[in-house]
Amino acid sequence: MSETRKIPAHVGIIMDGNGRWARKRSFHRSLGHAKGSSIVKSIIDVARLSGVQVLSLYCFSTENWVRPKDEINVLMDLLRDYLIQERDELMKGNIKVNVLGQRERLPDRVLDIVQDTIKMTSTNSGMILNFCVSYGGRNEILSAIRQISEDVKSGKLESSTIDESVVAKHLYQGGHSDVDLVIRTSGEFRSSNFMIWQAAYAEYYVTETLWPDFNAEEFHKALEWFGLRKRRFGHSDETSANARLRKIQKDENLAHES
Fold it and tell me: What is the mean pLDDT of the chain?
């Protein structure tokens, strides 16, 4: 990858296509999920080595609770097993783990491991790894609204001071950076309720590749694509250029002052 191309600070991945991968091979869906889970480790490694600061993986949505109980149990056990098996590697990689979503809905056998892993990696200072489990973007915003309402009611917060930064601090990820790049596998063009606040200005990269076939090469393709994007954030090319010029001039002034 060219060193001149920008690496997204925060990458979110909607890991889609496990069921279709299994169906194409006449396998049970659980084998598709198991194969998909085995891909996670390599993608975490390549993201960390590429310089990604935050990686958010959409593992299980709030809507997925309506799936058959056996399938839910498989997905929950895959998460638990991954966290148990990869703890040493997570520590060696200096990776900080978060689990974003309605944790209270997780089975105790999973929740205990989740909490232990979060605590164990809490002081790591490298890449932040967010597993989005029992997660929904709308529920996340609703939760933030409820918390902010309680803060206003108790006098901790004035309603007139509520701005985007206040809302961001009350989201599950507690004010981490917005998502720069969302990768969706399996060719679907939907956000599927994934980080709808944080990904407001994200670049969306869609690949036909099913998640169990996604690999380091595919990830680098997405990074290369992102590096070629012009991110205007609502500005025109001219205003974006002027903003960059002002930043360069500001940096130069600070350099002279020091």
Answer: 90
Using one digit for the tens of pLDDT, what is the confidence trace for 136-183? 999 999 999 999 999 999 999 999 999 999 999 999 977 678 999 999
Q: Say which CATH superfamily domain 10-227 falls into.
A: Decaprenyl diphosphate synthase-like (3.40.1180.10)
Q: Which of 64, 124, 139, 193 is catalytic?
A: 64
Would you call 242 a catalytic residue per the annotation? no
Residue closest to 8 by CA, chosen among 181, 132, 157 = 181
Amino acid found at 55: L
The sign of the torsion formed by the CA atoms of 105, 138, 204, 8 equals negative
C-beta atoms surrounding 97 within 10 Å? 21
> What single DSSP character describes residue 194?
S
Active site residue 213: no
Report pTM: 0.86
Q: Residue 242: what pLDDT?
A: 57
C-alpha span between 203 and 136 (Å, rounded): 20
Region 24-30 average pLDDT: 94
Number of H helices, E strands in the chain: 9, 6
Give the H or E element holding residue 131. strand 128-135
CB 146 within 8 A of CB 172: no
Token pair for residue 48? Answer: 């960390």
SS3 242: helix
Spatial separation of the C-alpha atoms in residues 254 and 258, rounded to whole Å: 6
For the chain, the domains span 10-227
pLDDT in tens, 52-69: 999 999 999 999 999 999
